[in-house]
Write a structure and sequence with these properties.
Order of helices and strands: HHEEEEE
Shape: globular
Radius of gyration: 11 Å
Number of helices: 2
Distance between the termini: 24 Å
Number of strands: 5
Structural class: alpha+beta
Largest sheet: 5 strands, antiparallel
Length: 81
């Protein structure tokens, strides 16, 4: 799954276009390296998103598309943020 789509379906970022802009601006790191919106997310990747001056780090637990809103939180675990 693409990084921008993953950020949207996991509800880390509300809209895919916003996720795309944030990734292309270099504010999303995957495993410590800047990632473009087209990066293919894999299970075990650590994603760090900078919201203003507050970074949020999560670990990818699943890349399966969720069936509903309530299971979106099961796609990742928060490491710090």
């Amino acid at each position: 799954m693409r990084l921008d789509k993953y950020l949207k379906v996991s509800r880390l970022i509300k809209r895919r276009t916003l996720a795309n802009e944030v990734a292309d601006a270099g504010r999303v790191l995957v495993n410590g390296k800047p990632a473009k919106a087209s990066y293919a997310v894999k299970v075990g990747d650590e994603i760090e998103i900078t919201f203003g001056n507050r970074p949020v780090r999560v670990r990818v637990l699943s890349t399966e598309e969720p069936k509903g809103k309530d299971v979106a939180r099961e796609l990742f675990e928060i490491l710090e943020g």
